[in-house]
Amino acid sequence: MTERLIADIRRRTLLKAGTAAAGALAFAPMLRANDKPDELIVRAWGGAWGDALKAGVADPFTEATGIPVRLDFTEDNEIKPKIWAAVDQGRVPPIHVNWDTSTNATISALRGATVDLSELSNLEGLLPLSQPVGLDGYPLVNTYAYVYVCAYRPEAFPDGAPTSWDVLIDPAFKGRVALYDDGIGFNPIAVIAGGGTLADIPDNMEPGYEFYRKLKANEPLLGEDSDFTTWFQNGEIDVACTISVNARAAQQNGIDVQWTVPEEGCKVDTDGLWIPKGLPANEEFWAKEFINFALSREAQEKWCSLLGLPPVYPGIAPPEDLVGDPSYPTEAADFERLVSIPSPVLVENQPKWFAKFNEIFQG
Amino acid sequence: MNRSPLSGSFLDALEAVAAALWPVRLRGATGWLFIAPALLLVGLLLIGLGYMLEYSLHELDLSTYRLQEAYTLGNYAVLVDQPVYRRVLLRTLLAAVLVTAITLFLAVPYAYVMVRTPSSMLRKLLLVALFLPFFIGQVVRAYGWLIILGKEGIINSMLDAVGLPAMDLIYHYPAVVFGLVQYMLPFAVLLIVPAITAIGEDIELAAESLGANWLQAFWYVLLPMAKPGLVGAGIVVFTLTLTDFAMPEILGGGTTDFIASSIYDSFFQLSNAGLGAALSIALVTIGSVLVAIVFHLAGAGTLGVRGQAE
Fold first, then answer.
1. Which domains does chain B have, with CATH numbers?
2. CA Rg, chain A, in Å?
3. B233 vs B185: CA distance, rounded Å
4. Average per-residue pLDDT for chain A
5. Tens-digit pLDDT profile for residues B255-266
6. Given a cut of 80, is residue A10 above it in pLDDT?
7. I need a labelling partner for A164 at 20 to 30 A (CA). Which of A48, A81, A171, B77 fits?
8. Is the pLDDT of residue B100 over 90?
9. Do A361 and A221 meet the contact criterion of CB atoms below 8 Å apart?
């Protein structure tokens, strides 16, 4: 009898202990889900772009949460295949958050490499611009708009800012004009500058290609963001199609450069943030928290003010030096002079436009 | 031979370990052991090329940005159908030929002086000047040329100081060729120096004693005997130029892309791994065929590699 009682007690104890252990094992992941990671890695563009993200979002986020944020300056085009390979192979991706062009981010979303961000609390109340076009839910969140302006050296334009993109094909500026080396930011504008209309995009780009052939004869320089700053600084160019952020940063660093929106208009686009799939649960949680913070009024105000770009958070006043600036659209009328092409159209057509751009300029 | 007891014991221990790891019955395969690391490296390269070949046979699906399952030669058809790739390839090949010719033209006298000079100070100076660029990467050197040759660079500042107009010294094809020659020169010299060193000075003296002047001895005696070095240097410079990325990208102004830039654009700009792989395979094939032709014309022993029977 006593032996049986002892055996019963031992069995009950064992069962209780086993149940407790099983419960602990089941709940542990949930408790660990919010464990703070050692750091968050955010891919960013360098120079003024990275400085703005650090001051406007990363540092305040670190102060609020204690999680250090490391900016990874790998080129947006170069990180893409690394992330895609990691997702496809079931590995942890190399970054937590990708600060990317909306077009690139859309491509990653189409590939199924992005985490859905629909449940972020700070999505509420944002401008419609924040929502990605042509995609279900929020595989990415757009964070601000930016304009590809006509930047110029005032010294080369004593009579005032150029009024038309025809300045790029003016022989007086032969060898002293610049574009992005893939035509980004100018392809649709080239159509209008070449005598076409918005309705021609994307099915009839020939007016734009004809403009590019004339531009080719003017021996333009083709490069990236950092090249434009160097070229303006070294007096290599007089006029360029570049993002207003770059022109403003150059100006703030003492380089004599200004910008305008010519009569044909300028392309307006958005950048966004997205999270690659495959992160551990706790890291994905805090990556979402980072993006959620980036959408808060505090972060949007500081970040976008430093960039000089209109945020997706409504009601934020532009920086003093950009009040009334056509590259900082705030009213509906401002957007009338700007050309916006939906991301799905860009995703589908940019490879074809690039191929033609390449064919013309590499000839 | 005097050998300290300590080194003797160490060598004995080493021999014992070697004998345990590589017993006598495996001695016949010792040669394979020595080249095993190189074979592994080459093997990995071939596996990578195999993957590239596989990728090149799939086209990109623009709706998912993944390569399609179906096998096709569509990417290769693009290379043939789109004239831009022919133009870029021809531009690259021309640059490779020009850079090779100019580099060899400059490298031979440099190597000759370095080997033949009786002045050890001059030899050291030439050696230092040769090796210094190796401490600076290609990208830094390219940016250095921008500073020297730019519109407001050192050269144009000097021209301006004497009242001359500024010149366009960068952001075009000649600037790229110039930058590449400057980058390749040390490689060529380093490959030619051993070839000239192997030619005894008495051979040139013998030629001169038979009536040849210095130039004739150089052209008819030295250069043919230095052929292994010249061919080796030529192949190295040619293939490095063919595959170069940084110099055309930085000094070319965006309108003088080489084939490496097209490959980069395909992989990263267009996210089209299939097309990028096709371009890569085309480049490797063309480069290999040209090198094979050179070996065929110059002879199998052209790099001084000869079998035991020779």
1. 83-138+171-298 (1.10.3720.10)
2. 25
3. 10
4. 92
5. 999 999 999 999
6. no
7. A48
8. yes
9. no
**Run of H or E including A222:** strand A221-223
Buried-state track B136-167, b at ≥16 Cβ within 10 A, e below 16: eebeebbeebbeebbbebeebeeeeeeeeeee
**Cβ atoms of B280 and B48 closer than 8 Å:** no
Q: What are the DSSP calls for B253-305, one per residue?
A: TTSS--HHHHHHIIIIIS--HHHHHHHHHHHHHHHHHHHHHHHHHH-TTTTS-
Superfamily of A150-265+336-361 according to CATH: Periplasmic binding protein-like II (3.40.190.10)
Structure tokens at A131: 């929502």
Q: Are A99 and A45 in contact (CB under 8 A)?
A: yes
pTM score: 0.85
Alpha helices in chain B (DSSP H): 5-21, 30-56, 74-81, 83-116, 120-131, 138-149, 154-161, 173-197, 201-209, 214-217, 223-225, 227-242, 246-251, 259-264, 273-298
List the structure tokens of A291.
């993006």
Interface test with A, best of B270, B272, B275 (most A CBs within 10 A): B270
Nearest to A182 among B150, B269, B271 (CB): B269
Radius of gyration of chain B (CA): 25
Residue A25 is predicted with a pLDDT of 56
Cis check: omega of the bond before A329, within 30 degrees of 0: no
Sequence-separated (6 or more) residues with CB below 8 Å from residue A234: B146, B150, B151, B152, B153
CA distance A215 to A174: 9
Provide the phi-psi class of A361: left if phi over 0, else alpha when psi is between -120 and 50, else beta: alpha
Residue B73 has what DSSP assignment?
S
Section A202-206 average pLDDT: 96
Closest-CA distance, B237 to chain A, in angstroms, reads 24
3-class secondary-structure state, position B97:
helix
- The β-bridge relationship of strands A69-72 and A141-152 is unpaired
Q: Quick one: CATH architecture of A40-145+270-322?
A: 3-Layer(aba) Sandwich (3.40)
Which of B59, B82, B84 is the best substitution to test chain A (most A C-beta atoms within 10 A)?
Answer: B84
Q: State the ipTM, two decimals.
A: 0.84
Longest CA span, chain B = 80
Q: What is the pLDDT of residue A91?
A: 97
Cα→Cα distances B142→B130, B169, B249, Å: 17, 13, 9
Helix (H) or strand (E) holding A152: strand A141-152
Q: How many angstroms separate the CA atoms of A94 and A82, rounded?
A: 7
Residue of A nearest to B173 (CA): A362
| pLDDT reading at B310 higher than 50 | no
C-alpha–C-alpha distance, residues B236 and B215, integer Å: 27
User: DSSP readout, B133-151?
Assistant: GGGS-HHHHHHHHHHHHST
| Position A286 pLDDT exceeds 50 | yes
Question: Which chain A residues have a beta carbon less than 8 Å from that of B88?
Answer: 362
Q: Where are the domains of chain A?
A: 1-32, 40-145+270-322, 150-265+336-361
Say yes or no: A13 contacts chain B, CB-CB below 8 A: no
Tokens at A214, concatenated: 């004339």
Q: Are strands A239-243 and A177-180 parallel, antiparallel or unpaired?
A: parallel
Amino acid at A226: S
pLDDT the model gives residue B212: 87
Interface contact flag, B84 A230, Cβ < 8 Å: no
The predicted pLDDT at position A59 comes to 98
The rounded distance, in Å, linking the Cα atoms of B251 and B247 is 6
pLDDT of residue A270: 96
Q: How many CB atoms lie within 10 A of CB A201?
A: 22
